[in-house]
Amino acid sequence: MRKEESTAYFMITPVIIVLIFTVGYPFIMAIYLSMTDAEAGKLGSFIGLYNFNQLAISPLFQTAFKNSLLYTFVTVAVKLPLGLILALILNKDLKAKKFLRGIILLPWITPITISAIGWKWMYDSMYGVINWMLINLGLIDHSILWLGKPWLAKVSVMIVNIWRGTPFFAIIILAGLMTISEDVYDAAKVDGAGTLAKFWYITLPLLKPVISFVVLFSTVMTISDYPIVFILTRGGPLNSTHLFSTLAFQIGLSTGYLGRGAAISLFIFPFLLLVVYFQLNLMRGKRWEY
Amino acid sequence: MKKEFRLNKWKVLGMIFCSILLILGSLVYVYAQDSTLRILMFSSFVPQNDEALKAIGAEFGREKGIKVEVDFISIKDMYPKLVAQSDSKSGHDIIGLENLLPITYKGSLLNLDDIIEEIIAQYGPFPNIAKEICYQDNHWKSLPWWIVPFHSTYRMDYFKDVGEQVPKTWEDLLRAGKKLKAIGHPIGIALSATGDSNNALYQIMWGFGARIADSNGVVAINSPETRKALTYVKELYEKTMTPDVLTWDNGGNNRYMLSGVGSWTMNPISIWVIAKRDFPELAEQLNHYGAQYGPMGRHGAGDFYSLGIWDFSPNKALAKEFLLYLYKKDVMNSYLESGQGFNLATHPYFYEHFVFQRNPKISELIGYAEWMHYTGWPAPADKRAQEVYLRWIVPNMFTEVATGTFSMDQAISKAEKELIEIGYKPAK
Amino acid sequence: MRRRLITSILDHISIIPFLLFAFFPFYWMLITSLKKNSELYDLKSIPFWIKEGITLDHYFYLLQKTEFLTWLSNTIIVSILPTIISLIISFPAAYALARLRFRGAILYGMGIFAIYLIPPTLLFIPFSRVISYLKLSNSIWSLIIVYPSFMIPFSTLILSAYFKTIPREIEDSAMIDGCNRLQIIYKIVIPLSIPGVITSTLFSFVFGWQNLIYTIAFISSSSQKTLSAGMVTELIRGDVFYWGSLMAGALLAALPIVLVFAFLMDYYISGLSAGAIK
Q1: CA A192, CA A189: separation in Å to the nearest integer?
Q2: Max alpha carbon distance in chain B (Å)?
Q3: Cα–Cα distance between A179 and C192 in angstroms, integer?
Q4: Same domain for C35 and C137?
Q5: Domains of chain A by range and CATH?
Q6: Residue of B nearest to A232 (CA)
Q7: Of B80, B104, B405, which is closest to A41 when you measure between CB atoms?
Q8: Model confidence over B289-344: pLDDT tens digits?
Q9: Which of B220, B405, C244, C270 is buried most deeply by CB count within 10 Å?
Q10: Which of B158, B196, B87, A163 lies closest to C129 in space, CA to CA?
């Protein structure tokens, strides 16, 4: 056990050192900033949790809070099954495998700012290709204001997030699938397992660490997702698509209330820390508990 | 089978060595910059503006025997960039400031009283709006440079078809708009979370005498004047506008007019300039008019641009000289000409630039700065006004009433609560 | 035989909706990038077809009138170097997290991940201070130093997840056969985890490729900008969007990576299946 421990420390130390040196100071500064009344161009003084208190009672922040939770929950809940299914399909022996796997990745690889701008025009109520398709297919008779009505706008930004994020899930899970060697399945077949049983009792458990990782990562990334909403709606209409990130940009960076902006960004930090803790436990599996 | 990621210690050492070399190299590059004047400006709608500024910088550099670097950035990205520069106390020497940014950064901007006094001595006083925005805490904090007015852009032919002249008052607009919608060419004013919406709606508010707060910072939005404005916009939306306005960003009305459907909108001349390039027949029919008249006078809005110098700049004297240089007659004239009428002067001396005399389509805009207020007026020009603008409080209120999402009382009361949250004093 | 054929057909069909959903925006972007300006604003035009003739003007504008190629090379450098650094550093850490028992493992994991809990739109402020203190402002080196901060945690954790996917028994039996830890890593773990390694490398690379906020904060000169920053500054001016060139830029910025990935992925998979376990 001793030897294993020291090997472990030896292997993990470079990461810790690099992170402390590159991130340590900014990380602490950011947290400190959220507890000051700093403004752009003006040094602030320490005010403890005042910013957080003010946010909690602010209707605008409460709206952004609810929006963020809804946005994250729905998109991750959709991306996971879609990504899983896609990964399973891509794992099979398809013609033009290389081509397909590449194409599937396109939404995620294109710089997010530019693809969001593209979607903005696709959603345009007059010129947009989506309305054009729906009208010409006879499904609607007048153009839909995708980005103009609160609930429609929420759905619209979620669709872009899902479009972009599903390949992320799919490819990461796919690599996990590829790591599972054939022998494991062969052994199961010998024991008489059918397709569904193979999937349920072998594939899914083996994929657990990969799936938990990608869900965790996507959740954290989506909660702080910023370009999609910023470019499509700026948080409107009527604040219906405002998220933590866009609100923090608006109050912190554009208006210049840096302390408040930091507090918005970090409001759910403790909660996220808990989520990370639980997911990491899930990933490592109970066997490794000390 | 290839082992792609096989690295041995020599390769690692080699990479570390190369990195150190490159870091040293870039340090030299960075240190060599110290005798340069660095200017950060936002990329203008008219690319020729950017070229002109670079040329002016180069000319100035030649005269003084120094290097001048002009960098461009998009307006949206300017905000975080300024935060980074002011926080780390390093960056450019001269920075472009939009609207109320001089107020946000007044603590970090160099006082420009001496050069402004020189300009006033030479050309005369600045208009009110310049003083309201750039003069803070008893000092001039930024140099007013140019404005982009938010005026009307309209189709002469459609108005002729319904027997109307260009609308000069808001009432005219409502009357003409109804007829225009009837022939399939509605008007459009953005009712959404975008700058265009702020700029248009504030003008309507002021035209009816409404305001968010008074000059003492007391909330004043709950008033009969506000209700008049809201009633007006609701009717305007229902009877004269296309519903697409709810989805518009700043480019939305451009696209609307360029499609040929739109008959009237509020926008600087960018629509006309693009039309000249791609749709010449449409461009022929476009025209512009200055600020509209309301029952309570003629009020305009737009974007106001000034230049500031960071107080931590290592080249303060040079930077001041450059700002003065920009106001030399031929320099200012050549810059305004490069904009082809997009940017207007902030100083009366330069209002009647030959760019406007030459082209009847933009002659109505001369002297727009005299009608213009910063968005938030008459409330004091400070961070609160900036926050109201950025939180879309006015557009939200009007949108809620126009679409019937909330009743007028509800919408006004919501806006009032937000204004108080932002820091305005409650009315007694 | 017939069953295999049916399954195969079903597999191919089931991927079509995904393909359409993923790909139709790009088809639309491609058409847009080839349309004349007058057709772009024409309400009667068809989004999926070009009526007035193909034009390469947008591509020419992008490549000649903007510093697109400079931005492209900057972006490549700024994405590759940190990715390699991250991979080297995170590989052993990932293995330790996945396989080795040591005190405080969960804490280490949380510590590594914690960086993601602070959004870059906040983190860039203190980072700017550090960068300007190091006098690296306006140099692509500022990005090369900062990027590992978000690449390393990702690499470490995802690699450790992939390592966990390899059944422990394989390594245990090798240990019984007398291999030491290093040999196991070389002979078993690395070969088996190649898809994971490639994926994590690719994704780290793409994170670097896409990042915008740090570029905006640290870099000003056009010659030092990355793709996203450059395109946004030059091709969006006020309320005018240079749609054609923007879409052209989007495609040119995405396709090379896609081709590389598609090629890489399959090349290494072929070596995977046999050998390693036996």
Answers
A1: 5
A2: 84
A3: 6
A4: no
A5: 23-288 (1.10.3720.10)
A6: B249
A7: B104
A8: 989 999 999 999 999 999 999 999 999 999 999 999 999 999 999 999 898 888 88
A9: C244
A10: B87
Could you tell me if C147 and C227 lie in one domain? Answer: yes
Which residue ranges form the domains of chain B, and what is each CATH number?
36-149+302-370 (3.40.190.10), 152-300+391-422 (3.40.190.10)
Q: Scan for tokens 């265009």, then name that residue.
A: B196
* Residue C252 domain flag: yes
Would the CB atoms of A19 and C153 count as touching at under 8 Å?
yes
Q: SS3 string of B142-177?
A: CEEEEEEECCEEEEHHHHHHCCCCCCCEHHHHHHHH
**Which tokens hold the place of A41?**
């161009």
Q: Which one of A212, A265, A284 has the shortest CB-CB distance to C119?
A: A265
**Where does a domain end: C55, C72, C97?**
C55
Residue C250 lies inside a defined structural domain of this protein: yes
Give the sheet arrangement for strand B67-73, strand by strand. B67-73, B36-42, B94-98, B302-309, B143-149, B344-345
Q: Per-residue DSSP letters for B217-252? A: SBB--SSHHHHHHHHHHHHHHHHHB-GGGGG--TTH
CA distances from B282 to B187, B258, C69 (A): 16, 8, 36
Under 8 Å between Cβ of B304 and B374: yes
Structural domain total, chain C = 2
Query: Is A158 strand, coil or helix?
Result: helix
Contact C262 A272 (CB under 8 A): no
In 3D, which of B301, B45, B345, B306 has the Cα closest to residue B195?
B301
Give how far Cα B39 sits from Cα of B36, B59, B99, B126, C214, Å.
Answer: 10, 14, 18, 24, 20
DSSP state of A250: I
Residues C141 and C11 occupy one common structural domain: no
Do C206 and C228 belong to one domain?
yes
Pick the last residue of a domain from C15, C38, C55: C55
Decide if A236 and B392 are in contact by the 8 Å CB cutoff: yes
- Same domain, yes or no, for C85 and C33? no
pLDDT value at position C274?
37
Instruction: Please list every residue in chain A whose beta carbon sits closer than 8 Å to the beta carbon of residue C25.
Output: 107, 115, 118-119, 122, 163
Please tell me the distance from the alpha carbon of residue C30 to that of residue A106, in angstroms, as a whole number: 13
Q: Min CA distance, A268 vs chain B (Å)?
A: 22
Query: CA–CA separation, B79 vs A249, rounded Å?
Result: 9
Partner-chain contact B30 C217, CB within 8 Å: no
C22 located within any domain: yes
**Alpha-carbon span C13 to C24, nearest angstrom:** 17
Tens of pLDDT, residue by residue over C9-58, are: 887 888 888 888 888 888 888 888 888 887 877 777 777 777 777 888 88
Domain that holds residue C78: 58-269
Is residue C276 assigned to a domain?
no
pLDDT for A290 equals 29
Model confidence at A127, pLDDT cuts 50, 70, 90, reads: confident
- C117 φ, ψ to 5°? -80, -10
- The radius of gyration of chain A's CA atoms, rounded to the nearest angstrom, is 23
CB distance A129–C199 less than 8 Å?
Answer: no
> Which single residue is written with the structure tokens 């203008």?
B44
pLDDT, tens only, B374-401: 999 999 998 899 999 999 999 999 999 9
A195-225 as b/e, with b when 16 or more CB fall inside 10 Å?
eeeeeeebbeebbbbbbbbbbbbbbbbbbbb
Q: Which residues of C touch A285 (CB under 8 A)?
A: 164
Q: Of the candidates B79, B246, B418, which has its C-beta nearest A145's C-beta?
A: B246
CATH number reported for the structural domain that contains residue C138 in this entry: 1.10.3720.10
Q: Among the listed ranges A159-173, A232-246, B263-277, C109-123, which one has the minimum average pLDDT value?
A: C109-123
Residues in chain C closer than 8 A to A273 (CB atoms): 110, 114, 117
Q: Are residues C143 and C32 in the same domain?
A: no
Distance CA C29, CA C251 (A): 8
Are C120 and C257 found together in one domain? yes
